[in-house]
Amino acid sequence: MSYSVNELKDELVKTLSAEYGYDASEATILQMYGTVLTVVQQKLLQKRGEYTEKMKNSDQKRIYYMSMEFLVGRSLKNNLYNLGMEAEMKEAVKELGFDLETIYDMEPDAGLGNGGLGRLASCYMDAATTMGYPFTGFSIRYEFGIFRQKIVDGWQMEQPDNWLEMGGFWLVPRRDESKEVHFDGEVKEEWGETGLKTIHKNYYTVRAVPYDLLITGKDSDVVNSLRLWSAESPSSFDMGSFARGEHIKSMESGNRAEAISKVLYPADDNIEGKSLRLKQQYFFVSASLQNIVQVHLRTNPSLDNLPDKAVIHINDTHPALCVPELMRILLDDFGYSWEKAWDITCRTLAYTNHTIMSEALEKWDLTLFRHHLPRITSIVEEINRRFCNYVYENFPEKRGAIGSMAAIGDNQVRMANLCLIACFSVNGVSKLHSDILKYDVFKDYNDIYPGKLTNVTNGITARRWLNQGNPLLADMISSLIGDGYVHDLSKLSELKKFMEDDSVLAQLADIKLQNKKRLAKYIAEHNGFQVDPNSIFDVQVKRLHEYKRQLLNAIEILHLYLQIKKGATIQPRTFIFGAKASAGYYMAKEIIRFICAISDIVNRDASLNGQLKVVFLENYRVSLAEIIYPAAEISEQISQAGKEASGTGNMKMMLNGAITLGTMDGANVEIHDVVGPENIIIFGMNAEEVMDLGRRGYNPWDVYNNNGYLKEIIEFVQRGG
């Protein structure tokens, strides 16, 4: 469907009058922001209605993607681009006296994710929708996101991210499809007409209210939805307590329920935080599975064929409760036998693993688990009993491994193990990562379930990170090879014929410089100092974690600083960092403070003559990444080999013309194989060498004494600079 400038302008004028009672000459920029969003949302709702009607007669298998995170960024620009009306809307808004870029900047990033896990989920949604698949995402409508990062004297401060105030407009409430989720209580067995039944009693109820974020695809008739659950209490106010003067107590039930959907990843270094995280996971899993079952039964007489009509994908271990919750629904709500329920469950669920680190393979204290989820606990215990018996009877050579493979052990419920036992497919997210899973971390499962563990290397949607984030480069590419690459990225290989074309290379260099100037302008506005766009922009932006080795990058900066102070001359270089540390991750926060301290020392030293600058950009997010990636020239992908499951920042920056400096880790390995060693800079140990060093051990004191550069840096830090 095409949209003319005049048609859009007429719709904007009518909507502005209907919603606010003003014409364009009287309207504020905030009112125009709301008007533009309203017009776009109406077009999405119309397309969604048409697609929903079409799907009523479709036998296409549905994809349900369960993830605690969806890092969608801003929606307005993405929707306009996918609807094919960005240029027309820009002109229509301009003719009414406003600037569309200013309106873009008013929209906050949706507070629904934090890192690569959530961005992968969003890229999948975009790609699946563009390709015409019926794809529904499920998560939580976090009121305050993860947090808004503020750097104060080098320290990360966490502030509430009230994104719903300006970003909640995109969410379509569906209160009529609310679900009830039950916590606590106890489980009793009672004889009924159909035999022995398990009854969950004396629980408290949380109401899950759905809000739909509509997702468009490029050149596609499909409009899918990301369904986000908000937690409410069925009785949020106790009039009796209030009447007795117990005013705080009268609101306790409402506060207890609403806390579930307040923030993403509440700090879990205390029992209250652990309890809240467990409730969050069960809350969104239970509500989502109830929803999936309801949708299935609209067009099917029973759940017998659920595996043929739907696949439910578990993105990391956070939604692993899908396994026992689907069993609970089948057993308790629909009366299936254990064997039949287990067959349906195992053929419906798939799982993506995102890490090999044991601390990230979630484990729940069994006592806490039983307290909040008594019925789920009894189901997990039965799954565990049957699995252990199965291995003992059928794989005598694995009897010694049963303890580590079990779903319950050491008074803990092991969520990754639960997925490995139940899901029909388990994938890693890069070839290296998947090989480590198959032949090391999950080797015993791979032996008894041959073919279950596979590899699906992570990817990105180039439409977001090239066409929208770097329109100058996208337009140039389209002028050279056409726009077929928008739907088939392999067509970018056609650019090889321009490798020796001086005019094309000059144009590329000019585009890079313009993007660097844009980022330099942002740095000046937000960090208060100037950086040279003609310097090399060396970029490391990603979640802050020790294994990602931002600390190694910081040490390299100090090395360069000390060499310059001794008279060396280098190509001017600007190091750019962006990262959030988890609220309870003290060491990660210390690394941020260290980087900021280096920035203060380097940027204030006039004797460097502009050869070195260090920038830490606070509150790293998708919309900021869209400014950083096009400007990057060196892409730091330097995780310790064997630790990074995949990584996608490496892909996004390389797509925008940056050179990767990295280790043979995650997707770097496959990128190296595709582009060749001449187009990627690799250093350090490989994964096998790292594991061998870990087995042999080493003496840090010897490293310190035998590496003059490192010793000089550490002594400089010890002196306080």
TrEMBL record:
Its cofactor is pyridoxal 5'-phosphate. Pfam families: Phosphorylase. InterPro entries: Glycg_phsphrylas, Glyco_trans_35, Pyridoxal_P_attach_site. The modification N6-(pyridoxal phosphate)lysine is found at K652. It comes from the Bacteria. Coiled coil: none annotated. GO terms for biological process: glycogen catabolic process. The keyword Transferase applies. It is found in: Cytoplasm. Keywords: Allosteric enzyme, Carbohydrate metabolism, Cytoplasm, Glycosyltransferase, Pyridoxal phosphate, Transferase. Its EC number is 2.4.1.1. One of its GO terms (cellular component) is cytoplasm. The keyword Glycosyltransferase applies. GO terms for molecular function: glycogen phosphorylase activity; pyridoxal phosphate binding. It catalyses: [(1->4)-alpha-D-glucosyl](n) + phosphate = [(1->4)-alpha-D-glucosyl](n-1) + alpha-D-glucose 1-phosphate. Belongs to the glycogen phosphorylase family. NCBIfam families: P_ylase. Allosteric enzyme that catalyzes the rate-limiting step in glycogen catabolism, the phosphorolytic cleavage of glycogen to produce glucose-1-phosphate, and plays a central role in maintaining cellular and organismal glucose homeostasis. Phosphorylase is an important allosteric enzyme in carbohydrate metabolism. Enzymes from different sources differ in their regulatory mechanisms and in their natural substrates. However, all known phosphorylases share catalytic and structural properties. This is Alpha-1,4 glucan phosphorylase. It comes from Candidatus Faecivivens stercoravium. The lineage of its organism: Bacteria, Bacillati, Bacillota, Clostridia, Eubacteriales.
